[in-house]
Fold:
Amino acid sequence: MDMKITTLEGKEAGSVSLSKEIFGLEPRIDIVQRCVNWQLAKRQRGTHKVKQKDEIWRTGKKMYAQKGTGGARHGSARVSQFRGGGRAFGPVVRSHAIGLPKKVRALALRHALSAKAKDGGLIVVDTLSIKDAKTKTLAAQFGKLNVVNALFIDGSEVEKNFSAAARNIPNIDVLPIQGINVYDIMRRKTLVLTKAALDALEARFK
Structure:
């Protein structure tokens, strides 16, 4: 599977052969969805908390006699029936994380990459380096590439000028190859990979 390599200015810079094992799979939505759900569940903080009846600062003495009042039978005023009482079955601090095997995560990443390659949302550039960290200049270059909503993946380190200029452009994400993930790939319309990122992916899935 051959693909053209372009520069940030939109000029051709050769071609590269993409691995079928990474970019040539028939995308499976169910596997990708499982990985996205795993990522989002793991990202939830789970710090929501309400007070249970044993955490309310109020006397536990029986409110009034069991019989003879003509009203309902009540004990402690901490229970959830009363204003200011504890909440029954409310949220507590917990982890929302779910389990997902490493092999399924790796497979989901390959299916996400294959989905981008199949629908034409994949661009390969030679390098992500610019002379000056100018947002206006970089936005003009994105216009030449016809990139509006994209995720840029570089090698082990992202060039500082490019990262600084791109962070002010809406709907543009920049990550090193270590941070590549299924959710960020699928939430952006276009995936832009550098030659260094391609080499790292091929080495990872050998």
